[in-house]
Amino acid sequence: MEIVTEAGAYRPGYFEHLRTPDLSTGTYSIPAGGTDEQSPHTEDEIYVVTAGRARFRTPDRTVDVAAGTVIFVPAHEPHRFVDITEDLVTLVFFGPAEDTRKPAPVSEQP
Length: 110
Prior knowledge:
CATH architecture of the domain at 24-95: Sandwich
Largest sheet: 6 strands, antiparallel
Pfam families: Cupin_2
Shape: globular
Organism: Actinoplanes friuliensis DSM 7358
CATH class of the domain at 24-95: Mainly Beta
Domain Cupin type-2: 28-88
InterPro entries: Cupin_2 (IPR013096), RmlC-like_jellyroll (IPR014710), RmlC_Cupin_sf (IPR011051)
Number of helices: 0
Number of strands: 6
Distance between the termini: 47 Å
Protein name: Cupin type-2 domain-containing protein
């Protein structure tokens, strides 16, 4: 067992708390009026909104989010938080761990 400390505490940006090969989790926070600059991920992802208010946008849907909202985003789906009206705090879970499916960089040939 491991206790994850400071999970869900507001701290601008993304802070990873735990990583195993099959799962990673962190806290993602965006200030009111801020911009979500993230790109699609190579892993499935779950957001649990613990504080704040915003809208969540994918190519097919936009929904209001607040504390208690749980969102599943499949790998590679474009998504972002928009219209952030209150400091937003989310717990984020990646399965498998974030960036484990990302292709390895191609090394330059001499």
